[in-house]
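Troubleshooting log. The previous structure file for this entry was overwritten by mistake, so regenerating from the original sequence record. Sequence copied from the archived sheet and checked twice against the printout by T.R.
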Amino acid sequence: MAGKEHVVVGISGGVDSAVAAMLLLQQGYQVTGVFMKNWEEDDDQEYCAAEEDYRVAREVCTQLEIPLRAINFASEYWDRVFAYFLEEYRAGRTPNPDVMCNKEIKFKAFLDYAITLGAARIATGHYARIDEVNGSHRLLRGKDINKDQSYFLYALGQHELSSSLFPVGELEKPRVRKLAEDAGFVNYDRKDSTGICFIGERRFKDFLAQYLPAQPGEIRDLDGNAMGRHDGLMYTTIGQRHGLGIGGPGDPWYVADKDLRQNILYVVQGQDHPALYRDQLLATDLTWISGQAPANHASCSAKIRYRQQDTPCTLEFTDNGVNVNFVQAQRAITPGQSIVFYDGDVCLGGGIIQSPQNRSTVAGVATVAA
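Regenerated output below.
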């Protein structure tokens, strides 16, 4: 029994954090809710739901009879997350701001704030689990495979995991919604938030153009033939099909590579074109949850994007990072995205993809641009 240990819960207005707070109360914790506002650059009603989120969060906390505090982390978010987001797109990569938000805001700024409130730990509505083996905390996948969020939490370390609780990690989403409905929460059937929080429902291209100048350039196929014009390499990602403006007969065209020096976008025809596949990548900015990297040439599995089955691989450490060698070539490996490593249900850690490459000619072509 938790007794009266004080836990501060991040209350977002969504059903997961509401049920997390309720479960902690049932387990005997002293619970305080905190609503985090992380964006206010252009948070009008058209794009940002913060006002409605706060209203729902307040209603849930009133029903649970727990206090709700509001804290504005917009400045921290701009400096630690959004600036990184812009810099990555400026460099032609495709970042994952959710990973950085968890690392810098939810499990750093928020954790620091909770400690000032006298909290022993924080809790969130993430679908993940934490256990402890021989004094070391491990991050595990959530029981609901379809909702598991360990991919976005790989950058957490021992301090963050030892200071955190994930109350809904043992549950599947339908069960969470049923608990919320039985409790009479107004948000029991509220739609899950998707996409990047500060962009909302607006077009990504329109949003990015507000902050980064576009540099139009040529689109070419791998033989160097001109296929059209792009509005800016930052608007495209490896494997992208839509928005290229290339018509004609045959299969659709896909982004295969970017030449940043010459501002050229390379495309190939057909979703299974060999140029879209690589069997190796280099990852840097590595984080290992245990605090220690796996052994060189260790075998594990990895995801190169959130919605993907694990793929077996081996790790070869170098002075520059780690070369990840896949058993099966991977489609559309995207620089800037996160690769996350697993041993069964245990999340080992991860890093940032720098460059896809081939150990051999398995993909049939060499990388177009270095």
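The CA atoms of residues 338 and 352 lie 5 Å apart. Archived copy saved in two places this time.
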